[in-house]
């Protein structure tokens, strides 16, 4: 689950972490009112979307020379103009793809006199089972270029959850950022605060870019991205208030209601599989046969007929889907349950694309019988390789 910058900063402020004063705004009038609460004369108007690269982004509806999604405003009237140009328009960045994202929220903050920009982020490193603190002296909009061309400028510091954050971790952060004296001590304190926030909030990712040194010698979090581990949401019931469904794919929202793991992709062959590993293998073999998957969809190990029916409808709601491959290995999941769900959903939505089904495992014969007696044009497959070849051939023939 991702949240907006202003929401992340509100959470970090509770840990006494320094952030510029700012206010969220949903309209031009609210943006102007937010600026009037700030001392000025410099304001920053930021588009709030769940994507990075806002500063270098372009608005689809505005001229090419128009400013991006993060703007410096030198007067209240500048704030009014920038808010009017941003709200309701589509911001295209390197992370949104060509479709972009519509800007429905803004964040108006106080301007900051920046002396130096740094980078600091935290993620869970699955290879080491530790929280990885990633730091660099090269903060700012081009951190991706730094990672690509000069990776030696990026340091990674692992924190063992058994010991938690220790003083030497803070010293390592300060050293990696090449800070000395009071700033080094401030960096050590900030790193500890950020680690505590990361763990307490069950974050999946916390990125500070840039972390800035101000001209009066302070460290401030100028921009941040934060996401949470969805498996820990039961510990944080207040997270529901932070969710912005306008930033999410409607199909993914619908899938979450049925506890389905669904991610839309750019291909034309819909996939319904049980088990994440098997789903990945299914997508790989589709590509091996010259086509591309339209989605990742894992129905899990204990899906009901209702759940399978919902999954099938979600796949078919994507207009890009030209064929469907169902690949089920029945362990906990029973093949007859999958078959019943497929038949019910196909009849309800008036199936009009090729459907190939490969079933194996628990109650496989019962499942195959249900499909064979359904009266639907379902194409059976013997194994995964056979299924992929058949669905790709059917889609190409239909085209």
TrEMBL record:
Binding site for substrate: 274, 331-333
Task of the protein: Succinyl-CoA synthetase functions in the citric acid cycle (TCA), coupling the hydrolysis of succinyl-CoA to the synthesis of either ATP or GTP and thus represents the only step of substrate-level phosphorylation in the TCA. The beta subunit provides nucleotide specificity of the enzyme and binds the substrate succinate, while the binding sites for coenzyme A and phosphate are found in the alpha subunit.
E.C. number: 6.2.1.5
Cofactor dependence: Mg(2+)
Enzyme class, spelled out: ligase
GO biological process: succinyl-CoA metabolic process; tricarboxylic acid cycle
Amino-acid positions noted as binding ATP in the UniProt annotation, renumbered to this chain: 46, 53-55, 112, 117
Superkingdom of source: Bacteria
Domain called ATP-grasp: residue spans: 9-248
Subunit-structure text: Heterotetramer of two alpha and two beta subunits.
Note accompanying the cofactor annotation: Binds 1 Mg(2+) ion per subunit.
Designated name of the protein: Succinate--CoA ligase [ADP-forming] subunit beta
HAMAP family on file: Succ_CoA_beta (MF_00558)
Catalytic activity entry: (S)-malate + ATP + CoA = (S)-malyl-CoA + ADP + phosphate; succinate + ATP + CoA = succinyl-CoA + ADP + phosphate; GTP + succinate + CoA = succinyl-CoA + GDP + phosphate
Family the UniProt entry places it in: Belongs to the succinate/malate CoA ligase beta subunit family.
Tagged with keyword Cytoplasm: no
Binding of Mg(2+), residues: 209, 223
Molecular function GO labels: ATP binding; magnesium ion binding; malate-CoA ligase activity; succinate-CoA ligase (ADP-forming) activity; succinate-CoA ligase (GDP-forming) activity
Acetylation keyword on record: no
Pathway stated in the Swiss-Prot or TrEMBL entry: One-carbon metabolism; formaldehyde assimilation via serine pathway; Carbohydrate metabolism; tricarboxylic acid cycle; succinate from succinyl-CoA (ligase route): step 1/1
Keywords from the named record: ATP-binding, Ligase, Magnesium, Metal-binding, Nucleotide-binding, Tricarboxylic acid cycle
Species of the source: Aurantiacibacter luteus
GO cellular component: cytosol; succinate-CoA ligase complex
């Amino acid at each position: 689950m991702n949240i907006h910058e202003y929401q992340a900063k509100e959470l970090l402020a509770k840990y006494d972490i320094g952030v510029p004063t700012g206010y969220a705004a949903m309209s031009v009038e609210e943006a102007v009112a937010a600026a009037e609460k700030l001392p000025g004369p410099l304001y920053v108007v930021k588009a709030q979307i769940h994507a990075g690269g806002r500063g270098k982004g372009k608005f689809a509806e505005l001229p090419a020379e128009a400013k991006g999604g993060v703007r410096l405003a030198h007067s209240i009237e500048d704030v009014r103009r920038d808010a009017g140009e941003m709200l309701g328009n589509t911001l295209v960045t390197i992370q949104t793809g060509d479709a972009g994202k519509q800007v429905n929220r803004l964040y108006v903050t106080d301007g900051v006199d920046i002396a130096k920009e740094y980078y600091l982020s935290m993620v869970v490193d699955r290879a080491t089972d530790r929280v990885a603190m990633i730091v660099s002296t090269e903060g700012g909009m081009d951190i991706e270029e730094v990672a690509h061309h000069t990776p030696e400028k990026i340091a990674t510091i692992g924190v063992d959850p058994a010991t938690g954050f220790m003083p030497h971790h803070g010293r390592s952060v300060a050293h990696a950022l090449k800070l000395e004296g009071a700033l080094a001590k401030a960096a050590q304190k900030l790193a500890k605060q950020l680690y505590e926030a990361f763990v307490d909030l069950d974050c999946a990712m916390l990125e500070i870019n840039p972390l800035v040194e101000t001209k009066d010698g302070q460290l401030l979090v100028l921009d941040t991205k934060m996401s949470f581990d969805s498996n820990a949401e039961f510990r944080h019931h207040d997270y529901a208030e932070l969710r912005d469904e306008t930033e999410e794919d409607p199909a993914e929202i619908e899938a979450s209601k049925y506890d389905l793991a669904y991610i839309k992709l750019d291909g034309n062959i819909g996939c319904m599989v049980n088990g994440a590993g098997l789903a990945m293998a299914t997508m790989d073999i589709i590509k091996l046969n010259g086509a591309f998957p339209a989605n990742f969809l894992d129905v899990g190990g204990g899906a009901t007929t209702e759940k399978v029916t919902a999954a099938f409808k979600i796949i078919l709601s994507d207009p890009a889907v030209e064929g469907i491959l169902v690949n089920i290995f029945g362990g906990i999941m029973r093949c007859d349950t999958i078959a019943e769900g497929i038949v019910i959903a196909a009849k309800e939505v008036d199936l009009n694309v090729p459907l190939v089904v490969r079933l194996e495992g628990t109650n496989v014969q019962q499942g195959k019988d249900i499909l064979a007696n359904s009266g639907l044009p379902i194409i059976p497959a013997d194994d995964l390789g056979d299924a992929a070849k058949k669905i790709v051939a059917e889609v190409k023939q239909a085209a």
